[in-house]
């Protein structure tokens, strides 16, 4: 009943990073909210963050290897660039749910493409920190 919550580049700076776009909630706050909701749903979350693309690839493989129930993935800017993450998602059977705080479709053109979204089970974007809780609820219902 393990859910991996993987966060990509610059998400360690949540809280102070462009708060007008991403809000003032920190990643630690999000992790705490997810732990509460996960406990209610009978799940356990493992919340991680890396600024390195290959580390995110390794963690997707690890989720598969340990038999995680789902992966919530906010790949940050790698969402829009990473064929390696797309291939990693395609290489595993564990469902990956794409998560974003902002709604990339309302932003710059280069954020309208998502490599992650091409293989994700689904996407939740635009609800700030709540996007993660909504994605966790979606994962619980899979
Ligand atoms: C983001 C959206 C991406 O376009 C951006 O590069 C991020 C954060 C979000 O959660 O809204 O780093 O994934």
Written description of the protein model:
This protein has 142 residues and is α/β, with parallel strands linked by helices. Helix content is 37%, strand content 18%. It has a five-stranded parallel beta sheet with strand order 2-1-3-4-5, sandwiched between helices. The longest helix has 15 residues, at 27-41. The radius of gyration is 14 Å and the shape is globular. The site of 1,3,4-trihydroxy-5-OXO-cyclohexanecarboxylic acid has 10 residues, from loops. It comes from Novosphingobium piscinae.
What keywords describe this structure?
alpha/beta, Rossmann fold, 5 helices, 5 strands, 18% strand, binds 1,3,4-trihydroxy-5-OXO-cyclohexanecarboxylic acid, aromatic amino acid biosynthesis
Contiguous runs where pLDDT drops below 50 for at least 5 residues: none
Largest sheet: 5 strands, parallel
Q: How would you describe the shape?
A: globular
DSSP strand count: 5
Please tell me the overall pLDDT: 98
Name the strands of the widest sheet in spatial order: 2-1-3-4-5
Molecules bound to protein: 1,3,4-trihydroxy-5-OXO-cyclohexanecarboxylic acid
Rg measurement, Å: 14 Å
Structural class, from secondary structure content? alpha/beta
SSE string, helices as H and strands as E? EHHEHEHEEH
Q: Whole-Å distance between the termini?
A: 12 Å
CATH class: Alpha Beta
Determine the fraction of residues in helical runs and give it as a percent range: 25-40%
In terms of DSSP E residues, the strand content is 15-25%
CATH topology: Rossmann fold
Q: How many alpha or pi helices?
A: 5
Work out the count of structural domains: 1
InterPro entries: DHquinase_II, DHquinase_II_CS, DHquinase_II_sf
Protein name: 3-dehydroquinate dehydratase
GO molecular function: 3-dehydroquinate dehydratase activity
EC number: 4.2.1.10
């Amino acid at each position: 009943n393990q859910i991996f919550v993987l966060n990509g580049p610059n998400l360690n700076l949540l809280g102070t990073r462009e708060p007008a776009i991403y809000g003032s909630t920190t990643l630690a706050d999000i992790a705490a909210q997810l732990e509460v909701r996960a406990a209610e749903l009978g799940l356990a979350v493992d919340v991680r963050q890396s600024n390195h693309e290959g580390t995110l690839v390794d963690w997707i493989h690890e989720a598969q290897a340990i038999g995680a129930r789902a992966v919530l993935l906010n790949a940050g800017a790698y969402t829009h660039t990473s064929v390696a993450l797309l291939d990693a998602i395609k290489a595993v059977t564990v469902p990956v749910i794409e998560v974003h705080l902002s709604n990339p479709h309302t932003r710059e053109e280069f954020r309208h493409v998502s490599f992650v979204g091409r293989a994700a089970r689904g996407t939740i974007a635009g609800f700030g920190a709540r996007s993660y809780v909504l994605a966790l609820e979606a994962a619980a219902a899979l």
